[in-house]
Design brief:
The complex is a heterodimer of chains A (about 100) and B (about 325). Chain A is mainly β. Chain A is about 0% helix and about 45% strand. Chain A is built from no helices and 4 strands. Chain A is globular and about 40 Å long. Chain B has about 325 residues and is mainly beta. Chain B folds into 2 domains: about 260 residues, Cathepsin D, subunit A, domain 1 (Beta Barrel); about 50 residues, no CATH class. Helix content of chain B is about 5%, strand content about 30%. In chain B, strand 9 and strand 10 form a beta hairpin. The longest helix of chain B is centred in the middle third of the chain and has 14 residues. The N and C termini of chain B lie far apart (about 70 Å). In chain B, about 40% of the residues are buried. Classes of the chains: A mainly beta (about 100), B mainly beta (about 325).
C-alpha cells in the first residue's frame, strides 16, 4: 500500500496553506522544507506542500493521484542548473510514446 | 587594527606599523584534496613583525587602498571560473561590482575583513553567482538571496570531489598595485560541512544587501585568509599597503602570480537531462516520473508533472477528501 508523505526524516515544517488550486485540485495542508530528488538528475531542498485535505478533484477524479505533483512551472526549482547565464533561458522538450489505450497491441 | 588603534600605543607607537594574518584552515580540506595535510596547526597574527615563513622571494601581490583614509581596495578583475593548467587555458565569468548606478562610490571596490565569515557579494553579483553555482552543481545548490543568505548543497562536501566542483576558483586582481600579480582562491576556501545545515556542504559566498552602503563592496572575509597569507604595513596616512602571499596551508590550485592563459570555451555548460517516464505506473497517457521526496518512506515513488505550477504537492498519509468536484 502506498503510504504517502508522513513528514518523517528531514522535513521541517515551515507553514500552512489553504484552498490552494493546482492541477485540478483544491487542497489544504502543511508546507515543509524537504529534499526532492528528481530522477537521476539532482537532489535539492525545496518547499513541499503536504496535502492534508482535498476539497476538489476536477481533473483526476477516480484516477490514481500518484504520490503527488511536481511543479515544473517557470519558477520551479527544476530549472535551476539549466538556466543559461547569458540568455537567462532554460529549454525543454516533451516526446511521449504512443500509448495504446484500448488494446494491448 | 587601524592606524589609530590603541594597540599601537601598547606596542610603543612604532613609526611603521606592521601585522600579518596567518591562518590555517578551520575545516580539513580533505573533501577537496583527499591527502590534504595542513602545514601549520593553528591560526596566528603577528603584530609588530611578520612571519618568517614567507620571504620577499616568494610570489606576492602588493597593493594600496584606492583612496586616502579608507581601507577600500580597487578591483581590476574579479571572476569565478576555472584555470586548466594542463591545457593552459582559463575561463572566468565577471563578478565585479561594476554597476555605478547601483553602487556609486563603492563600485569596483573591495575590502578585506577578518570580522566577516566568507565571501560577501552585493546582490547583483550574488544572484549571478547563484546561477553559476547552480549550473556547476547540476542544480543541487540552494542559495538564499536575503540578508545572512548563503548557499548550501544537498550533500556533504566530499560528495562533490568527483564532480570537479572544487576545481573552480575566484580570480582576483587588485588595483593600485606595485606588482602585476593576480590571485586565484579556490571555491573550496569558502566551503565547509555546516552543523547549522545538518552537516551538509555550505558555500559561504554570502549575500550583501546593497541597500546599505557597507554592503556595496565585495568583502573577502576570514575564510579567504585560509588560502592567502596577508602582511599589512601602515607607515602613515598615505603609506598603507597590503601584501598577499599564497598561504602555506593552501590547496594546490591557489595561486599568486602573473601567468597568462588563453581563454577557453565556457566552463559553465548547461547540462542536459533525459527524464524517462515511469513505465510501471503510466496510466493511459498520463505519464508519471520517478522522483523521491524526503518524508515519504515508500520506494518507487512516482509523480505527475505540472508545467502550470511551480509548487510541488505531495499527498499526506492523513490526507482526506471532503468533497469531489
Amino acid at each position: 500500500m502506498e503510504r504517502g508523505f508522513d513528514g518523517s526524516y528531514l522535513p521541517q515544517q515551515v507553514g500552512t496553506f489553504s484552498y490552494s488550486k493546482t492541477g485540478g485540485f483544491i487542497v489544504s495542508g502543511t508546507s515543509y522544507t524537504s529534499e526532492l530528488c528528481f530522477g537521476d538528475i539532482n537532489c535539492k531542498f525545496v518547499t513541499v506542500y503536504g496535502v492534508d485535505q482535498v476539497s476538489a478533484d476536477n481533473w483526476l477524479y477516480d484516477t490514481n493521484g500518484a504520490y503527488g505533483i511536481i511543479g515544473a512551472g517557470p519558477r520551479s526549482h527544476i530549472w535551476e542548473g539549466f538556466v543559461d547565464n547569458e540568455t537567462k533561458k532554460a529549454s525543454y522538450s516533451i516526446e511521449l510514446a504512443r500509448v495504446h489505450i484500448f488494446s494491448s497491441s | 587594527m587601524g592606524r589609530n588603534s590603541p594597540i599601537w600605543k601598547i606596542l610603543g607607537s612604532p613609526t611603521t606599523m606592521e601585522y600579518d594574518i596567518y591562518m590555517t584552515n578551520f575545516n580539513s580540506w580533505t573533501f577537496a584534496k583527499p591527502d590534504y595535510v595542513a602545514s601549520t596547526p593553528r591560526s596566528v597574527m603577528n603584530v609588530g613583525t611578520f612571519s618568517t615563513d614567507y620571504t620577499s622571494s616568494m610570489s606576492s601581490s602588493t597593493f594600496a587602498p584606492r583612496d586616502v583614509s579608507t581601507y577600500l581596495f580597487e578591483l581590476l578583475e574579479f571572476g569565478f571560473g576555472k584555470t586548466d593548467e594542463t591545457a593552459q587555458t582559463e575561463y572566468y565569468e565577471d563578478l565585479k561590482n561594476t554597476d555605478d548606478a547601483a553602487y556609486g562610490f563603492w563600485a569596483n571596490s573591495t575590502s578585506l575583513a577578518l570580522n566577516f565569515r566568507g565571501l560577501g557579494l552585493p546582490s547583483i553579483e550574488f544572484k549571478k553567482f547563484m546561477n553559476l553555482l547552480s549550473i556547476i552543481s547540476k542544480g543541487e545548490s540552494t542559495c538564499i538571496a536575503a540578508k545572512s543568505g548563503y548557499c548550501v548543497l544537498s550533500d556533504t562536501c566530499d560528495a562533490y570531489y568527483a564532480t570537479g566542483l572544487w576545481d573552480y576558483d575566484f580570480k582576483i586582481n587588485f588595483g593600485h598595485a606595485s606588482t602585476e600579480n593576480y590571485i586565484r582562491v579556490p571555491l573550496a576556501s569558502f566551503a565547509a560541512n555546516s552543523d547549522a545545515e545538518g552537516g551538509l556542504c555550505a558555500i559561504f559566498v554570502e549575500f550583501l544587501d546593497d541597500r546599505f552602503d557597507d554592503s556595496k563592496t565585495i568583502i573577502f572575509g576570514g575564510m579567504f585568509f585560509q588560502s592567502i597569507y596577508a602582511q599589512y604595513t601602515m607607515a602613515g596616512v598615505n603609506a598603507v599597503s597590503v601584501t598577499l602571499f599564497e598561504n602555506l596551508n593552501a590547496l594546490p590550485q591557489t595561486y599568486v602570480g602573473s601567468k597568462t592563459y588563453a581563454t577557453s570555451e565556457s566552463v559553465f555548460k548547461i547540462p542536459t537531462a533525459v527524464l524517462n517516464s515511469y513505465a510501471l505506473t503510466d496510466r493511459n497517457g498520463l505519464p508519471s516520473f520517478a522522483a523521491s521526496v524526503a518524508g515519504i518512506t515508500d520506494y518507487n515513488q512516482y509523480f505527475y508533472l505540472d508545467f502550470g505550477s511551480s509548487h510541488t504537492y505531495v499527498w499526506s498519509t492523513t490526507c482526506e477528501t471532503t468533497s469531489i468536484g
